[in-house]
Amino acid sequence: VQLQASGGGLVQAGGSLRLSCAASGRRFARDTMGWFRRAPGKEREFAARVTGTGWSAVGTYYADSVKDRFTISRDNAKNTVYLQMASLKPEDTAVYYCAAALGNIVSSRVDQYVYWGQGTLVTVSS
Predict the structure, then answer these.
(1) 90 by DSSP, 3-state: which?
(2) Is residue 24 classed as helix, strand or coil in its secondary structure?
(3) What is the pLDDT of residues 69-96, one digit of tens each?
(4) H or E element in which residue 75 lies
């Protein structure tokens, strides 16, 4: 199983970026997928998650720090999850990681996610 994250780069404050995470080796349509980030000198933290398709409990959830600015979505036909980031701030600078759980979990904990991408760097200049 591989998760390949892409789309990071350098952007000015107030700008937008879209991250993509393409999965291979396993279909994740019914599994929760998420985005986490690690800022310089900090621990990896939760950013957003989207639940699997076909369950009674479905939806998206965001960390307070990104709510109303970031949008997570998934395209099950492409086995891909996206993170649309808008109104970016310098404090959003981090390596962003996509992750996949096994099953439809409703957790933001790093240790609840089984598969991880390699990370893509987002740098927001002021």
Answers:
(1) helix
(2) strand
(3) 999 999 999 999 999 999 999 999 999 9
(4) strand 70-75
> How far is residue 109's CA from residue 118's CA, in Å, rounded to a whole number?
18
Tallying the residues shown for the chain, one arrives at: 126
Q: What CA–CA distance (Å, rounded) separates 48 from 79?
A: 17
Q: Which residues contact 103 (CB under 8 A, 6 or more apart)?
A: 30, 31, 32, 52
Give me Rg for the CA atoms of the chain.
14
Say yes or no to pLDDT of 51 above 90. yes
Task: Quick: pLDDT tens for 31-41.
Answer: 999 999 999 99
Which amino acid would we find at residue 114?
Answer: V
Residue 33 Cα distances to 15, 51, 69, 106, angstroms: 25, 6, 18, 10
d(CA 72, CA 1): 21
